[in-house]
Write a structure and sequence with these properties.
This protein is an alpha/beta fold. It has four domains: 65 residues, no CATH class; 54 residues; 227 residues, P-loop containing nucleotide triphosphate hydrolases (Rossmann fold, 3-Layer(aba) Sandwich), CATH 3.40.50.300; 89 residues. Helices cover 44% and strands 18% of the residues. It contains 14 helices and 15 strands. A six-stranded mixed sheet has the order 9-10-11-7-12-13, sandwiched between helices. A three-stranded antiparallel sheet has the order 6-5-8, with helices on one face. It is globular and about 95 Å long. The two termini are 28 Å apart.
Length: 480
């Protein structure tokens, strides 16, 4: 993935189109790509389900929903707010119009056969015929209603590792690793790629040899989702056959219900796996996990091919999962509120941190998992390049972050105002260019003056926006 990106970027094109560029990238590469794209001279078009990445790189969001395009000239987080407002406005306008239509129809039916009301009835009939109907941009509320089966009860200690080492030939990945996981814990394995997270996951599953001591607890049943789980599916089998071949007992009668919960309905179940998208294959692979109850679930980068809605619903299901969870992930938002312990991999070790992902990040004095690549791990001791953490340093950082957020909020606000002005100017220009437009309406004294005032105001806003962007850049450079 890094080589393919390098081949594109070294050509320095005017426009770069990237489809899920962060999938399979390690933390250092994601950080580098964010910085590169942020300062890139050309246009950048991203397809991504990584919210943090989108907010750091983009300044415009185009939503594709139910065969419609909606263009928002704001970053992703602001787009989410504006989309909610738009749908609320649509809903209100739709309800008002439906009331008008129903009232008009009632009037027509009531007085249709009264001669004294014939003129009014005909007028309302014509009005209904000419009325441009408001359509609600309904959000697709169909969802992956994942519910993991009840977990068989395991022993108190699910996994115990002592002095575990593992090498690929002469390359040592893990060296005398110590780690314990108890029943019901939800933990995260984080760190740069190549530090041993996936290797340890495969060792726990029993797929790789190792040296040292590894004890899987009493009655522990492991469910495993690999990074390339979707690629391991047989492309020539249908969606239905893929589940049917592993289903046993009464669960066979519920296969179609399970597929429906994963958005495979109707003719979708007869599709060959090879024609499915990456996200569809990932959902299908996840559905297979439901067919065999487990009490230790190991998920290795499960969100790589899932869209945002699917990630949220998977997270909700995992929160309700009553077994033990190990999640190998770089997705900070996915891990937030789900894990209660973090194992940080580096220098052939795994250091334990109690608490959630944001508590870990706060203690590390970093804002995101991407910054882990800037730290140096020595054994169990973490050394940070910055000055030692202190209450004063934390206070200074909070003040700086407050100033940064304040400036970013001003930019978001002015971008919203600019977008509104551009829309209004566009309406004026449509009227000017429309040959059917009554020329007399444009002779009004204030028609062109309002148009020119809007253009002048837009120019002023653009100047102010550029000044704020320069201030933001200077502030970020000061922080770095």
């Amino acid at each position: 993935m890094r080589i393919e990106l390098a081949k594109i970027l070294l050509r320095s094109p005017d426009a770069v189109l990237l489809d899920e560029p962060t999938n399979h990238l390690d933390i250092d590469s994601i950080q580098w790509l964010e910085d590169f794209l942020h300062d890139y001279h050309g246009a950048v078009l991203l397809i991504s389900h990584d919210r943090v990445f989108l907010d750091r790189v983009t300044n415009r969001t185009v939503e594709i929903s139910l065969a419609q395009l909606y263009d928002y000239r704001v970053p992703y987080s602001r787009y989410v707010e504006l989309r909610k407002e738009r749908r609320e406005q649509q809903s209100a306008a739709f309800k008002n119009q439906q009331k008008l239509i129903n009232d008009t129809r009632d009037f027509i039916e009531r007085f249709r056969y009264k001669a004294t009301k014939s003129v009014q009835v005909q007028s309302r009939i014509k009005m209904l015929e000419k009325l441009e109907r408001i359509e609600i941009d309904e959000e697709d509320t169909s969802s992956i209603n994942i519910k993991f089966p009840p977990s068989p009860r395991s022993g108190s200690v699910v996994l115990e590792i002592r002095d575990l080492s593992m090498s690929y030939g002469y390359h040592q990945v893990l060296d005398q690793l110590d780690l314990t996981i108890h029943r019901g814990e939800k933990v995260a394995f984080i760190g740069r790629n190549g530090e041993g997270k996936t290797t340890l996951s495969k060792i726990i599953k029993g797929d790789l040899p190792y040296e040292g001591h590894l004890k899987v607890g009493h009655n522990v049943k492991i469910g495993y989702f690999a990074q390339n789980q979707d690629e391991l599916l047989d492309g020539n089998k249908t969606v239905l056959n893929t589940l049917d071949e592993v289903a046993v007992g009464d669960i066979r009668t519920k296969i179609r219900d399970i597929l429906g919960a994963f958005l495979f309905s109707g003719e979708d179940v007869d599709k060959k796996v090879k024609v499915l998208s990456g996200g569809e294959r990932s959902r299908l692979a996840m559905a297979r996990l439901l067919l065999e109850p487990c009490n230790l679930l190991i998920l290795d980068e499960p969100t790589n091919h899932l869209d945002m809605r699917s990630k949220d619903i998977l997270k909700k299901a995992l929160l309700a999962f009553d077994g033990t969870l190990i999640a190998v992930s770089h997705d900070r938002e996915f891990l937030d509120g789900m894990v209660t312990k973090v194992f940080e991999f580096g220098n052939k070790k795994a250091r334990e941190h109690l608490g959630g992902i944001y508590e870990f990040l706060s203690r590390r004095q970093i804002k995101s998992l991407d910054d882990l690549g800037k730290q140096k791990l020595k054994g169990d001791t973490v050394t940070i390049k910055d000055a030692p953490f202190s209450k004063q340093a934390f206070s200074d950082k909070k003040g700086f972050d407050k100033e940064l957020r304040k400036l970013e909020n001003r930019i978001v606000k002015i971008e919203s105002e600019i977008a509104e002005m551009e829309n209004q100017i566009g309406l004026f220009e449509q009227k000017i260019a429309d040959p059917k437009m009554d020329p007399e309406s444009m002779k009004a004294p204030d028609f062109y003056s309002r148009y020119e005032n809007l253009r002048a105001a837009l120019k002023d806003q653009m100047v102010q926006w550029e000044q704020l962007q320069n201030e933001l850049e200077q502030l970020k450079n000061k922080r770095n």
